[in-house]
Known about the structure:
Elements: H1 5-9, E1 20-21, H2 32-43, H3 54-74, E2 81-84, H4 87-99, E3 107-111, H5 120-129, E4 132-136, E5 138-139, E6 142-143, H6 145-151, E7 156-162, H7 174-183, E8 187-191, H8 203-206, E9 210-213, E10 224-228, H9 230-234, H10 259-273, H11 283-311, E11 316-318, E12 328-333, H12 338-346, E13 350-351, E14 354-355, H13 360-365, E15 372-376, H14 383-397
Parallel strand pairs: 1-13, 3-4, 3-7, 7-8, 8-9
Antiparallel strand pairs: 2-10, 5-6, 9-10, 11-12, 12-15, 14-15
Amino acid sequence: MAIDSAALRSHFPSLDSGIAFFDGPGGTQTPRPVAEAIAATMLQPLSIRGTSTVSERNAERAVAEFRAAYADLLNVPATGIVHGRSATQLTYDFSRHLAKTWQAGDEIVLSRLEHDSNVRPWVQAAERAGVSVHWIELDGAELDLGSYRRVLSPRTRLVAVTAASNVLGTIPPVREIADLAHAAGALLYVDGVHYAAHQLVDVPALGADFFVCSPYKFFGPHCGVLAAAPALLEGLEPDKLLPSTNVVPERFEFGTLPYEMLAGATAAVDFLAAIAPGDGTDRRDRLTRSFEAVHEHELSLLAQLETGLRALGDRVTVHSRAADRTPTTLISLDGRDAGEAQRHLATRDVLAPAGSFYALEPFTALKLPEPALRVGLAPYNTPEEIDRFLTGLAEFLG
């Protein structure tokens, strides 16, 4: 089922600005139903959770609906869904939780494909625990899987890897990495922040022990979500306030939850499920059909973008070359500053950001020019917007 672009775009008031937004990897625009869900939650009777008054029950419902929505989105039990302020915050939290079990002589494995939020928390936790860090290098724009076989050992406690690079778009074979990690007795922590915006997540199928994502990358409010098997969470003991609950997953959520953010994040999942639901019988089925339509739409836009970039010849270098990747393209401009290109495009109401986007490892490993221009597509983008970007870039390059 194809996406009805006009109908989809009608839900985004910010698109009336005329700006062509190609900054999806940094965060998408917000549809009206998400903002309305946040406002409705804040304006209704609301208090600390309980069952005695409507205000308490409203808070309880916001939490329950949030967990149910992300259970459907990520295919895990609702009791395996943990809310956090951001994916970075959740990763820092869980690096501390997990490092409690590490000892000197243990090892962890990281990759050069990562956003720094899936690097620095683990490196810093390893330094405190006296644990060694092994690195998986890049083979072009992709991970060298042979490195996993060489470095994994019975001493490995954790493997952390992205499900999709936020700058190159590369989608590594997470299931294969998971199987290698588990064969060595290690846990797999997956940064799915960029991946979850473009692929329907199935945490068990990926083999991820922990999977983290950010709703604001797929139309939701600014927060983070971590998914894990409830039994695995039961085995972790976070530092927490003595009177706070020890029930999973709530013992990993510190302080009063932001009920309005939970409601907005729930509305984002429902919005995704309604993009092209077909005759889906439940929310997971509707999500499956909608993501299939999103994928088809984004692949068409990506093909148009790549054709246009090739037409610009050697004035443009495309660094996103993985066989399997998201519709995110990193480019540099021969002899020209990408920051200046961003500013020129902005005068044409085209937002395509320049920078390194917290992707320190791939920029260093591949010696990528900084800043580089990132063109990140989202479901609300159109062929006409691709043409506007390509025309503006050609003007800049002269």
